[in-house]
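HOLO CASE FILE
Compound: glutathione
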Amino acid sequence: MSEEEVVVLNFWPSMFGARVIMALEEKEIKFEYKEEDVFGHKTDLLLQMNPVHKKIPVLIHNGKPVCESNIILEYIDDVWKEDKTLRLLPSDPYQKAQCRFWGDLIDKKW
Ligand SMILES: N[C@@H](CCC(=O)N[C@@H](CS)C(=O)NCC(=O)O)C(=O)O
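Model generated. C-alpha coordinates follow.
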Protein backbone atom coordinates (compact mmCIF):
# COMPACT_ATOMS: atom_id res chain seq x y z
CA MET A 1 0.00 0.00 0.00
CA SER A 2 1.22 3.47 -0.68
CA GLU A 3 0.38 6.96 0.50
CA GLU A 4 -0.78 5.67 3.85
CA GLU A 5 -0.58 8.15 6.69
CA VAL A 6 -0.19 6.35 10.00
CA VAL A 7 0.32 8.21 13.26
CA VAL A 8 0.56 6.69 16.73
CA LEU A 9 -0.14 8.67 19.88
CA ASN A 10 1.68 6.94 22.71
CA PHE A 11 3.29 7.31 26.13
CA TRP A 12 6.58 5.41 26.07
CA PRO A 13 6.19 3.27 29.25
CA SER A 14 2.74 2.04 28.22
CA MET A 15 2.43 -1.68 27.52
CA PHE A 16 -0.80 -0.92 25.66
CA GLY A 17 1.14 1.39 23.39
CA ALA A 18 4.00 -1.11 23.10
CA ARG A 19 1.53 -3.65 21.75
CA VAL A 20 0.60 -1.31 18.91
CA ILE A 21 4.19 -0.28 18.15
CA MET A 22 5.30 -3.94 18.04
CA ALA A 23 2.47 -4.84 15.67
CA LEU A 24 3.34 -2.01 13.29
CA GLU A 25 7.05 -2.85 13.41
CA GLU A 26 6.46 -6.58 12.89
CA LYS A 27 4.37 -5.76 9.82
CA GLU A 28 6.92 -3.17 8.66
CA ILE A 29 4.29 -0.43 8.48
CA LYS A 30 5.80 3.03 8.50
CA PHE A 31 4.33 5.38 11.06
CA GLU A 32 4.88 8.71 12.73
CA TYR A 33 5.30 8.52 16.49
CA LYS A 34 3.91 11.25 18.74
CA GLU A 35 4.69 11.11 22.43
CA GLU A 36 1.93 12.17 24.82
CA ASP A 37 2.34 13.23 28.43
CA VAL A 38 -0.82 11.47 29.56
CA PHE A 39 -0.34 12.12 33.25
CA GLY A 40 0.55 15.75 32.70
CA HIS A 41 -0.78 17.75 29.80
CA LYS A 42 -2.88 15.92 27.22
CA THR A 43 -2.67 17.49 23.78
CA ASP A 44 -5.69 18.78 21.89
CA LEU A 45 -4.92 16.12 19.29
CA LEU A 46 -5.32 13.30 21.84
CA LEU A 47 -8.54 14.80 23.24
CA GLN A 48 -9.90 15.20 19.73
CA MET A 49 -8.89 11.70 18.58
CA ASN A 50 -9.98 9.84 21.72
CA PRO A 51 -12.72 11.98 23.28
CA VAL A 52 -14.33 9.04 25.10
CA HIS A 53 -11.38 7.62 27.08
CA LYS A 54 -8.78 10.38 26.53
CA LYS A 55 -6.09 7.68 26.63
CA ILE A 56 -3.23 6.44 24.53
CA PRO A 57 -2.59 4.49 22.39
CA VAL A 58 -4.44 5.97 19.44
CA LEU A 59 -3.75 4.94 15.87
CA ILE A 60 -4.63 7.66 13.36
CA HIS A 61 -4.94 6.18 9.89
CA ASN A 62 -5.39 8.68 7.08
CA GLY A 63 -6.83 11.13 9.61
CA LYS A 64 -9.26 8.69 11.24
CA PRO A 65 -8.67 7.55 14.83
CA VAL A 66 -8.82 3.99 16.14
CA CYS A 67 -8.72 3.61 19.92
CA GLU A 68 -8.15 0.75 22.40
CA SER A 69 -5.03 -1.33 21.84
CA ASN A 70 -6.71 -4.68 21.10
CA ILE A 71 -9.10 -3.02 18.66
CA ILE A 72 -6.14 -1.26 17.04
CA LEU A 73 -4.39 -4.63 16.58
CA GLU A 74 -7.46 -6.12 14.91
CA TYR A 75 -7.71 -3.05 12.70
CA ILE A 76 -4.05 -3.32 11.69
CA ASP A 77 -4.53 -6.99 10.82
CA ASP A 78 -7.68 -6.18 8.81
CA VAL A 79 -6.14 -3.33 6.85
CA TRP A 80 -2.63 -4.64 6.14
CA LYS A 81 -3.40 -8.17 5.02
CA GLU A 82 -3.08 -8.15 1.27
CA ASP A 83 0.65 -7.81 0.88
CA LYS A 84 1.80 -11.08 2.49
CA THR A 85 2.66 -9.39 5.75
CA LEU A 86 2.48 -11.70 8.70
CA ARG A 87 -0.80 -12.12 10.55
CA LEU A 88 -0.92 -11.04 14.16
CA LEU A 89 -3.33 -13.83 15.07
CA PRO A 90 -3.28 -17.40 13.77
CA SER A 91 -6.11 -18.41 11.44
CA ASP A 92 -6.90 -21.57 13.42
CA PRO A 93 -9.86 -20.68 15.70
CA TYR A 94 -8.52 -22.56 18.73
CA GLN A 95 -5.04 -21.06 18.47
CA LYS A 96 -6.61 -17.64 17.98
CA ALA A 97 -8.67 -18.11 21.15
CA GLN A 98 -5.50 -19.05 23.05
CA CYS A 99 -3.73 -15.87 21.88
CA ARG A 100 -6.73 -13.78 22.89
CA PHE A 101 -6.78 -15.47 26.30
CA TRP A 102 -3.20 -14.38 27.05
CA GLY A 103 -3.81 -10.88 25.77
CA ASP A 104 -6.91 -10.62 27.91
CA LEU A 105 -5.03 -11.89 30.97
CA ILE A 106 -2.42 -9.14 30.54
CA ASP A 107 -5.22 -6.56 30.31
CA LYS A 108 -6.90 -7.81 33.47
CA LYS A 109 -3.93 -8.67 35.68
CA TRP A 110 -1.13 -6.30 34.67
N1 LIG B 1 -7.77 -0.33 27.50
C1 LIG B 1 -6.86 0.67 26.99
C2 LIG B 1 -5.95 1.12 28.12
C3 LIG B 1 -5.11 2.31 27.71
C4 LIG B 1 -4.52 3.00 28.93
O1 LIG B 1 -4.80 2.66 30.09
N2 LIG B 1 -3.65 4.03 28.66
C5 LIG B 1 -3.09 4.79 29.73
C6 LIG B 1 -1.56 4.80 29.66
S1 LIG B 1 -0.90 3.19 29.91
C7 LIG B 1 -3.53 6.25 29.64
O2 LIG B 1 -3.58 6.82 28.57
N3 LIG B 1 -3.85 6.86 30.78
C8 LIG B 1 -4.24 8.23 30.85
C9 LIG B 1 -5.39 8.45 31.77
O3 LIG B 1 -5.83 7.49 32.45
O4 LIG B 1 -5.87 9.59 31.84
C10 LIG B 1 -6.09 0.08 25.81
O5 LIG B 1 -5.95 -1.16 25.75
O6 LIG B 1 -5.67 0.84 24.92
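CASE NOTES: The chain has a mean pLDDT of 93. Helices lie at 15-26, 44-49, 69-79, 93-109.
CLOSED: yes
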